[in-house]
Amino acid sequence: MPQLAQRVGRAKPSAIMVIAEKAKQLKAAGRDIISFSIGVPNFLPGEHVYAAARESLSHDSGQYGSNRGAEALLDAFLGHIEALGFTGYTRMNLSIGIGAKQVLYNLAEALLDEGDEICFAAPYWTTYRDIADIVGAKANVMHCGPEQDYKLTPTQLDAALARKPRVFLFNNPSNPTGMVYTAGEIAALADVLAKHPDTWVITDDIYNSMVFDGIGYHNFVFARPELRDRVIFVDSVSKTYGMPGWRVGLVAGPEAVAKAVTTLNSNHITSLPEVITAAAVAAFSGSQDIPRAKCAEFAGKRDLVVAALGAIPGVACPRPQGAFYAFPDISVAFGKSHHGTKINNDVEFCAALLEAKGVACVPGSAFGEPRAMRISYTCPTAQLQPGLQRIQQFFAELT
């Protein structure tokens, strides 16, 4: 039979979804499973979002929409980013996608030719490496371990940019670590970026409204406005508004980049459906009470997770200040056994934890850090403490 394209061989299933599917299968078989695996916010948007969707259906045109995005959505997004601190942007600086993941893929297609270099820090969201592989880009990964709070340093960035990569991809707040960069840390990195004018900068900041401890959200453009000509900001409704299934992603950046994304849209997705657009407009422009309340709730859950992990001898977990993840270093368990099952690495640890205690976590190697595992703490509050206690018991039983 004819052969598939070579790029398909470079595409890999999401490691996160593999774990989530295994947990789902065990639960269907009758096991008591607590899932800390998949990164979904596990809450629903406000009634005003559903009301807008229903109203849209009542006068649906059935027509194609704009490749760039409906004007109402673009205007609502402009209001959203202005509240964050981005000023001077117009509709021509914006475009849409089927979720932030598809926006990132579009940006890779628009900015990277085969063989170009893209740099990003590890731990990284799994899709970064996957997209780079699919488009044939060379990934230069800057390793940022727990000893530096999983944060990129100016020295590391300077060395990476000296190689003149086409793209620098940055994530703040971070998935998988939950770490957030302070205004000072962003300013120091922005100073380095200003020295290297040949690199595009993508800030994948979809957790920008989930920041704890008063640290605030900061962007390179705020620190060095002259970077605006090459900084591209990516956002979505998925995490902030509890709408991952609605699949709305947006990008704000230089007009040439927004135009390129829009052109790519015209060749595959065409547009967002009217009902989805209406819901997203309502999310951005309506009451923000639910996102604010959920942010406070997640901060409280963060405290429980960090306290539980801190009570385990040998486990180190830099304190996350955003999103809804913790990323503990579990390497103290490597070389030990759990009831006869030898644990040599993070993958074996997570497999044994799931089998023995019914707790699903994602191995850190999926994110480029094999000493760790990711905990997504968006499960119902009633499951959080029992899940954490099972993890503590698992460690206590290692020999």
Features:
2 domains; alpha/beta; 42% helix; Aspartate Aminotransferase, domain 1; single chain; Aspartate Aminotransferase, domain 2; 399 residues; seven-stranded mixed beta sheet; 14 strands
Shape: globular
Strand-pairing-aware structural class:
alpha/beta
CATH H level, superfamily name of the largest domain: Type I PLP-dependent aspartate aminotransferase-like (Major domain)
Mean pLDDT: 95
Number of helices: 14
Classify the beta-strand content into a percent band: 5-15%
| Level-1 CATH class name of the largest domain | Alpha Beta
| Largest sheet data | 7 strands, mixed
pLDDT < 50 runs, ≥5 residues: none
The CATH topology of the largest domain is Aspartate Aminotransferase, domain 2
- The CATH architecture category of the largest domain equals 3-Layer(aba) Sandwich
- Termini separation comes to 52 Å
Strand order across the biggest sheet?
2-8-7-6-5-3-4
DSSP E strands, number:
14
Spatial extent as radius of gyration: 21 Å
Total domains? 2
* SSE succession: HHEHHEHEHEHEHEHEEHHHEEEHEEEH
Cofactor: pyridoxal 5'-phosphate
Keywords: Aminotransferase, Pyridoxal phosphate, Transferase
GO biological process, one term: amino acid metabolic process
Family: Belongs to the class-I pyridoxal-phosphate-dependent aminotransferase family.
